[in-house]
Amino acid sequence: MRLRVVHDVTTIPGLIAPTKAADRLVGPAGFRVIGLDLSLTSTGVALPDGTTYRIKTRSTDGDRRLLHIRDSIRDALAAHRPHLAVIEDLPTRMHATALKIIGKLHGIVVGELLDADVPYAFIPPATLKQFACDKGNADKPQLAAAAYLAAGVEFVDDKGGDQCDAWWLRAAGHDWCGQPLFTMPDAQRDRLSKGKWPAAFVQRGAIGAAA
Hints:
Elements: E1 33-37, E2 42-46, E3 52-56, H1 64-80, E4 84-88, H2 96-115, E5 120-123, H3 125-133, H4 140-151, H5 162-176, H6 186-190
Parallel strand pairs: 1-4, 4-5
Antiparallel strand pairs: 1-2, 2-3
Helix pairs in contact: 1-2, 4-5
């Protein structure tokens, strides 16, 4: 990450009010979340320590790209042992061919998460944009500008926004589980209820969290 962006952040909704989080789980001390923006050509990863990177592949490798992405995520899970993985869900509208390709990748990554005993959540793309920017059709520069406004970060070598998306997915996991990384308006935080959260992360009582 770097700490300079050129986007005009004055138009991004103000991240000003901490959530009350009355109906969200309080994560354990040292809570670790990994964000995954899955793509067969460039998967964005946000590690629990906040580091972001891309897993890049070559189209000439065909389906063997799945193995490269799987192995990289397997290594990340083993090294960082996250409590939760947050994945960008498939768009509601997608061409059948593209859906078949990305579906393969989602399946193989979910298999790795199951093997590592890491619960996983899915957040629709529009919901993630609403959480970050209060705008379901926010573009990549707006998401990057919102990240700078929230935490002063910029993403190097991220033309497609894969690292930025993964970073926001990690932030969403922290926020939903009662350990936000920064303050945001409650209205934006409430958008996360549209995500598909694992059962243990839906109700605070699931792990005996205080009311």
